[in-house]
Amino acid sequence: MHDKVDNEMSVRVLNVISQRTIDNPITGEAIAQQVGTNWRSVAACVETLRFLGFKIGSSKTKPMGYFLARTPNEMRPTAERMKQTCLVQLKQVQRMYMWNGDQPTIFDDHDLAEVDDAVREFQQVTGERL
What global pTM score does this model have? Predict the structure, then answer.
């Protein structure tokens, strides 16, 4: 998804978010109104910006919205929430590629190698085991 995002739009989204703090976040809908797009485009821009290394935090409790994290502690809740989502999805994928125990998989070997690589990378980065 991040390859298809408009760079100009991403810069505008970043400009709006960079003015916000953990105590004063802004919702995706409010950003969309300010930059003239929809919340899905804002979410895609945020994903792209995060891939580029921008520390964009988000809060799912009041006050809700996006903000530019200024310290590792401000980024931690967002990173932990995202990590837990990844962990759940990787566990689901691991179970999906086993069919009736040891029966052949529904994925091809290339897919399995990518999942295994993702699991290893996740474990190295987080120190957690799946």
Answer: 0.73
Phi, psi (degrees; rounded to nearest 5) at 98: -105, 125
For 83-117, write each residue's pLDDT tens digit.
Answer: 888 878 877 877 777 766 665 566 666 666 777 78
Q: What is the DSSP-derived secondary structure letter of residue 84?
A: H
Where do the domains of the chain lie? Answer: 2-68, 72-126
Q: Under CATH, what is the fold of the domain 2-68?
A: Arc Repressor Mutant, subunit A (1.10.10)
